[in-house]
Each structure stands twice: as structure tokens, then as C-alpha cells.
Amino acid sequence: MKNRAWFFQGDQGEFALEQPERNTGLYFPLVNEAGMMSAITPNLHGQVTSGHNTFLTEPVSVMDLHNSKASRNFWVYIQGEGAWSVSGNSPRQQSELYAEEKEASFVEAGFLWHKVTREHRTNGLKAETINFVPMTGDKVELMKVTLTNQGAELLTLIPTGAIPIYGRSADDLRDHRHVTSLLHRLFVSEFGLEVQPALSFDERGHRVNKVTYSVLGAEASGRAPIGLFPETESFIGEGGALDWPESVVANAQPTAVAGDQLEGYEAIGAIRFNTVKLEPGQSVAYVMAMLITDDRLDVSRIAADYLSEQAFNTLLEQNQSYWQEKLGTLAFNSGDESHDLWMKWVTLQPVLRRLYGNSFLPYHDYGRGGRGWRDLWQDCLALMVMEPEEVRDLLLNNYAGVRIDGSNATIIGSKPGEFVADRNNIPRVWMDHGAWPLLTTLLYIHQSGDVELLLQPQTYFRDLFVKRCKDRDASWTPEQGNKLLTRDGQIYEGSLLEHILLQNMTTFFHVGEHGNILLEGADWNDGLDMAAKRGESVAFTAFYASNLLEISELLLALQARGQETIEIAEEMMVLFDTITDEAVSYDRISEKRSLLDRYYERVVPSISGKKVSLNISEAATDLKRKAAWLTDHLRRNEWIHNQEGHEWFNGYYNNDGERVEGDHPEGVRMTLTGQVFPVMGGIATDDQVGRIVRAVDRYLKDANIGYRLNSRFGGIQQNLGRAFGFAFGHKENGAMFSHMTVMYANALYKRGFVKEGYEVLNSIYTLSRDFEKSRMYPGVPEYINEKGRGMYTYLTGSASWLLLTQLTEVFGVKGHYGDLVLEPKLVASQFDASGRAAVETLFAGVLLKVSYINKNNADYGDYKIGSVTLNREAVHYEGAEGRVSIARSLLASLPAGQGHEIEVVLV
């Protein structure tokens, strides 16, 4: 093997890998906005689906990728030699996997297409297979196989495309797998096979089904195939298998032609094409389409749109242009071209998460589709940079999921702003959920200057559960709908600011016996789910503390724009305790909990609908007092000194009310999460940040897998969470969890610990790029396990945070109430040989290229901003040293539809 790792080709992020089948678990996403979601491997395995209940191919987990024999196979029967698979999916080819002489194979991929090239070991036949999901309104995946005779002799070939059709819900994989095949109705058309089950059997009930699953094929010219093998059992033959089917191996004649219908069998789109004679140097191509439709096909329309080489090539070109344009709104140029191209794949990941949710890729086999509450807000971080025109409406819609008690819906519908009651009426509250919306909204306000968004009205979510899901309201019925009503039956709306206040202020009073916010069902770390009664999240107490301070500053920003008062629901006044006659001592846990109970009683089962006017200055002062109390509390009570002389913040209390972190008989216990939010939110002093860095390096940094999420706790910790049932070094128990590692870097950059932050970010890139260990394509994984393998690729919120950190902290391109702020925090190695580093991004509706010129090759801390030009003309700016601000009005006046360059000279 010449290359044991993937390598970039060109400057558009395309990459290649030789002998890709030598790597377990590799897969690649193919997707479109219409709802087609595919995954494909180097041997064309994977899955094709449009949702949990509509899988065209069999649902697969990552283990199935190398254990299952099903795939998008394409066979060639070579006269005089026998059967050969263009994807290597045959026992004969797989037996040569570790041989000295093996078939040459190669995978290439770009945005978003996948190509596998394979060469027959003896006769010179080369197969090139390209797959992609076109950007049309159809749920369709296309596949083109090109066969080329590179040998010296004539080859006589009989091609057969063979793609198994599962055609039902993922729930049927084990539950009634055979019975549901009896529902299948198979219709043979001129170009292939349609499967339309008569009924759907799943948790939704037995319903008449119209959804149709199809596999069609044609020659390059659009010429139809000669026949089909539609039944799996007949295609493979008695004793046969999908990787060695009798119909191909014995070169059998097709069993079905257009117009045939069958019932009650497992189906396969096994399409037999005409015999072809290939002279040396000649090529022949075939196009196959996999479709999921709401009803039977208009086959003639599908054939015209997709089933020719000309149509395939045109759609592929359109697909490539679509993704390049979408991803072209953010690009980095530094001293490391490989890193810049790697970041292009990270840029894709938030878009993939919007389209896939957290499901429908092989590692993400636990989901049923959609996203969680936290995902809604964190994915918006990257969309704010890449698809800013959509963000305002997304934010506004998302707030409709907030309950009047400060909690929120946890099941997210497929449409924007659609929320449904908790699945199976299982009440659960993640205590961190209320913290994220403000962070995302604040970023939007700073990027756009749209402070008025805070005053936009929105409804509240309502269901059976009340008082943060601690109680049920027997008076509520589903017929009332999922919107909060006033006592006179009207739908209630409050401003987004009111929603934000509720989420953060109710949580402030929801504390445990040590004065920190109760952990409840879990926080960001879903694995800490067994300390609902006495567990406390010190980490997110720090997050909420910084939020309260941020909200007070937002209020003052509104005031500076002429707003003297805000309107809130009258029931909320009790939460502003310092400006009412219901003030409580924040040192007394019972008083804080009692105040919260009084609020709950006022909003259950409904609210009056009346609003009160609140003075902004008084409200801001109340919030600052709350933030100050939390900050002082955390610094005084949660700062740890251990026997080795290291210091850091405790992150949690368990369900026995015990502090989790610090010295322990089984070793020092420490969490990264417990350090990130005190650093990011300004709870930790500058001196404490330095001490935290040293403690993290001592107890969490590992040369092999980077910064661990936690040290080894020992035991399964049933008083804290399921995470500790995982083996140490895997997932939420001590792996390098990219999300929190990136947030740690972000926090360090925010606090001016730039070199330390760069080391953290660079470790993620280095680990992901080390293919010998990570075994993953370009991008950032959810986590790196104990062996250094990248796990749960593509769908991770860490991608949004990595993009945000790279843009706003490393390159220092960010907004401040709509104005552009430039505050570079680049280290010397991030400039190219000419001393230049640049980023292209959208801001104020125009595409900007911000270039930093560092001719002295100075390191961070040794340079300051000397001059700023816009399109080569000096520009007025405010600021000094390492930070400048450019008025939004100047940028907004620039012509749209063309690029503009800001050049910053560092001296």
C-alpha cells in the first residue's frame, strides 16, 4: 500500500485513500434538503433512508458495516472467468484482503460525492463507482458504474446491479421481520423494481401504506435493462448469499420483466443489463437510482430526470456547485494548508447535523430522528456564520419550546418551531437546557445588532408536566393543544426576553443543599443521569451565573436605545425578589426553594395574561446581585486544593450529597466540564485560570488521546450516572470528548490564555488527522477513544463550537451589537510563509476576506494592530493595541454579491 492514510487532492477539500477496505468503520454521508439521508462505505455498504419508519435499505449500526453481506452491489459476470464485484463484495475478493498481491482499490470523496475505483487483479478490468444524492426535490440517491477495459484482450461482460430493498420501519428489523415482508407488493417496471408494502406495522399502528421504495437502472444512453431478479431468495439461490448469488455466479436468466407483480417476499433491485463486449481501451457506463416516494412512481419522469449518464453528470456538477457555494461562506487560510482543508469538512458538519439530526448514520444507531433541545441552539452557532438569513426565524421559533416554569420541551418536531410532548409521558429535565438559548441569541445580537429581537412575542410550550416535571396537571388534556393558555382560554405570548429571564431566573432558585443548582435528570453530560434528588451541577451553576450578568448587560443595551421599561407576566415579579417585598436570603436554601414554589403555584394550571411594567435599571440591578452572589459562592465554596498542591473547581455533587472532585482513595477525581464554565464565564479569576490549566495538564491531559473529559473515578458510580458504567477512556467516561475540549479551548482564548488554547485546539486536529489511530475521514468526531479511534463521526455539536472558536477567537472576527470587531489571537505558526493569515466570512450581508499581515513573524502578545484598510483604502476604526471596531454602517453600504477585503497590518 502506497498510502496508509487519506490525503487531500487539490484545494477544494477533496481527499483520497488507497485500499480503503483495510479500515473498519469508515463511512461517508450523502444527503439532500428533500430528506434523503444515506451513508456509504468503501465497499458500498451503508444505508438509505428518509426517516425512522422509511428505510429503503436495511438499517445498520457500525458493526453491520463489516458483518453484513448486504450492500449496493454491482456484479460483472466475465465470460471465461466468472463473477466479479465492482465493490469487492465477494468471498473471492475478500479472501485477498491481506494478500501480498491484491486488487488495487481507491476511494475519493468531496462535497458531497463518493467514488470507489477498483481494478481486477488479472484481466485489466477497471470499475469506477460514483454515488451522490442530488439537490432535487426527490428523495433519491444516484449511482454510476463505469467499466473500462485496460487490458490487452476483448472482455465479454454481463452486468447485474443488485441492491436489497428493506422497505419498512427500523422497528421491523427484529420485530416481525418476516411478517412484514408478507406485506410487500413488488411491481416490475421497464427500468427496475418498486416495492410498496400494503400496510405499515410499527408503533403507530397498522395503517394502509403508500410509501414506495424503488431501485431502477439504465445504460448510459438511457436504454432499459433486459430483466430483473426481484425476490432475494431466488436471486441468491438455495445455499447462496448476497455476496455470492447463484443468479450471478451461474449467469442465470432474469426471472421477471416489465409488468410482472409479486407479493410477500423480501425484495432486491437486482437488475440485469445487456451483454457487452469491451475492446481494449473501451468503457461502458450504467446508472442506478434508489428512491423513496410518497406513492408509486412516474417511471417515465424518473427515467428522463435521472437514468442516463448525461443526466447523472449534470446533476453531479450541480451537486458539487451547491455544496461548494454553501460552504464557501466560511474559509480559513493559514500556514497549514492541510488544516485549512480539514476545517472545510468541519464546516460541513453543522449542516449535516441540521439534516440528519442525531440519527441515520451507522454510529448514531440510537436515535429515531430529529434533534434535542440543546442541539437546536448549538447548531445555530455555526448556521449564524454560514446561513445567517435563516437564523432569526429559527431563534424565534425555538423559543416556543420553553415552558412557563422555565423548563422546555425535549422532543423536537421535524418542522421549525414544532414541539411535542415527551415520548411515552416520561418526564425529564436536563438542568443545562435553560442556559444555551441566551448564549446563541447573544451571538446573533452581536453579529446582527438586532437587539429588538428580544422584544419579539412568542408562545410557550404546554403539556401535562408542570413544576419542572416534578408534578402533573390533571386538568390538562391533549385537546387543549401544546400552547400555554391564559385563564380565559387565550393563547399567551411573552417577549423572547421574558422567555430568557424565566429560563435563567427560575433555575437560580432551583438549588440543592450546597447552594448550587440541582442536577435533575442530567446536564450537558447526559451520562450524569443518576443523581436527580441530591446531585448538583456546579459547572452549570457557573454558566447560569455568567448568563445572569449577560442578561443585565443586555437590558442596559436596550436602555441605551431608549427603552426604559420591559413588560413581563405579572406572576414573574416574585422572581425579581430584591425589588419586591418578597426578598429572600440567598444563603438560605429553604427560602430560595420556597420562593420558587410560590412562583409555580401562580402559573399552574394557567396564568392571568396580565403584564406588569418593570424598570430596566432595577431589573438589571436585581440580576447583577444574583450573578454576584453565585460568583462569590462558587469562589468561596467550590475551589479545591488537593494534596499534590493543585487547585481547580469542583464540578458536581452526587446523589448522596457528596462532593465529586478532589482527592479520593481510588485516585484524584477531576472533570473538564467543571473547569470550562468557570473559566468561560469569568467566575475564575486570572490567577485561578492559570492554576486550572496546570491541574488539567496534570490530571486530564493524555499524550495518546488528548484532554480527557474526566479522570478515572473507579467503580460504576450509581449515585452519579450511567457514564461510569462505560469502560474508562470511552464516550462520557474519560474519552477525549471533542465538544467539551473545544469549549475548554474557547474559554482559554476568551480569557487571554492563547497559547494554551491553541495547544488544546491543535491536539484535536492532530488526533483526528492521525489516520493510523483515528481511522476516520476528515472532520471532528464526537470523541476519541482509548485507542485513539475517532468515534461517532460527522454528527457532533463540537463542530459548531470549533468553527465559532476558530472564527471569533483565533481569527478574532466577531460582532459587538452589530459592529465588526477584529481581535486576532493567532500564534506565529498560524501565518503562512509570507506572514499572512486570512479568513473569509459573511458579515453585515457581505462576504468579507479579513487578512492579517504579520511581516515580523511575531507571536501572539508581541504584535498589535498598526493599520486597517478596506478594499485598499484606509478605514476609520475605533480601538487600540490588539482590538479594533469597524462600524456596521460602513460594511452594510458595500455592494452585495461580491467579495471585499479588510487588510490588517500587525506591528
Secondary-structure map:
Elements: E1 7-8, E2 15-18, E3 28-31, E4 37-40, E5 46-51, E6 54-55, H1 64-67, E7 73-78, E8 82-85, H2 91-94, E9 104-110, E10 113-119, E11 125-132, E12 139-149, E13 155-165, H3 177-181, E14 185-188, E15 192-195, E16 199-202, E17 205-208, E18 212-219, E19 227-231, H4 232-236, H5 246-249, E20 261-263, E21 267-272, E22 276-278, E23 283-293, H6 299-306, H7 309-327, E24 330-333, H8 337-356, H9 373-386, H10 388-398, E25 411-412, E26 419-420, H11 436-448, E27 457-459, E28 465-466, E29 471-472, E30 493-495, H12 496-509, E31 536-537, H13 538-560, E32 565-569, H14 589-603, E33 611-615, H15 616-637, E34 639-641, E35 647-649, E36 652-653, H16 673-680, H17 686-699, E37 701-702, E38 706-707, E39 736-737, H18 738-750, H19 754-769, H20 771-774, E40 783-784, E41 790-791, H21 798-810, E42 813-816, E43 819-822, E44 836-843, E45 846-853, E46 865-870, E47 873-874, E48 878-880, E49 883-886, H22 888-892, E50 899-906
Parallel strand pairs: 45-50
Antiparallel strand pairs: 1-2, 2-9, 3-4, 4-5, 5-6, 7-8, 7-13, 9-10, 10-11, 11-12, 12-23, 13-21, 13-22, 14-15, 14-20, 15-18, 16-17, 18-23, 19-21, 24-44, 25-26, 27-30, 28-29, 31-36, 32-33, 34-35, 37-38, 39-40, 40-41, 42-43, 43-49, 44-45, 46-47, 46-50, 48-49
Helix pairs in contact: 8-9, 8-21, 9-10, 9-11, 9-21, 12-13, 13-15, 13-16, 16-18, 18-19, 18-21
